[in-house]
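Let us practice reading a record.
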Amino acid sequence: MTVTKEAAAPAGTARQDTGPPDPEQGWRVSSPLVLTMLLLVVLTLQGPVRQALSAPVMQSWTTVFVAVVVQALPFLVLGVLLSAVLAVCVPPSFFARALPRRPALAVPVAGVAGAVLPGCECASVPVAGAMVRRGVAPAAALTFLLSAPAINPVVLTATAVAFPDEPRMVVARFAAGLLVACVMGWLWQRLGRPDLLRPKAHPSAEGQGRGAAFWGSVRHDVMHAGGFLVVGAMAAATLKSFVPEDVLRLASGNPVVSVLALAVLAVVLSICSEADAFVAASLSQFSLTARLVFLVVGPMIDLKLFALQAGAFGRAFAVRFAPATFAVAVVLGSATGAVLL
């Protein structure tokens, strides 16, 4: 005798009608599903795929793509690990105690602190928001937000490895990044409107152990930064392999066009700062100054950073701060390149 669920229910209990299935609980597009479908397509079409990859242009594309990813990946992982240590072990209240109370002096100190304490773009935004909520002068917090991902030790080391024959690039990147961060901090102190800067509550790791918070931060940053690294490597390989040399030569031959082109490219690609030097090194058609602007703009304003800043401080802040940062980074990056490169 089979006992059904209805018969097994206690007496007097009304049967609940579940109604029609919730459409939101149906199929959902997720990363594992997309990866599985992609692998199935590749296995099904492995003959045409193998034939396409055997073409010389695709072999060149694959070589550049793998070279950029393999060179950049160790620095990306190291930067993510150090960023997680910073997020877990250094409380935001530390900055409130360490920075001078006068905003004009706190700005350069915060810029230097960003150079000493490594952190990627994804980590610097919530840290800067926490600094503002803890009473740090907004000008100093925004200076740290810009300098930490741009000139920290991991980024400078990666730049030295990516440009082994151009040690001046490391000096120029440090000088331009620190200068842009401080100028933006002073500009905010002078012209910024306090009502625009509204840091929102950020989910904390309270209730978690340090180990859980550390690995949670690592997983988050690796998933985000790794994806942007792949996109950046694909774009660099495509430029090297598919874009005609005449087009690149035309863009790189004009100093103004080359600087603006790589500045816009840095915004669109949104590459993690620990890996962008290897992408810049692969764009050998462009001048060192144009590639320096690419390295200065990218860690300070790109598409993902704009979204992070809008989420952390409000859209009204982001739509004003991001264009100003872009303009200052292009001008000061170009000026630094003209002097040091």
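A brief commentary: Confidence is low (pLDDT under 50) at residues 1-17.
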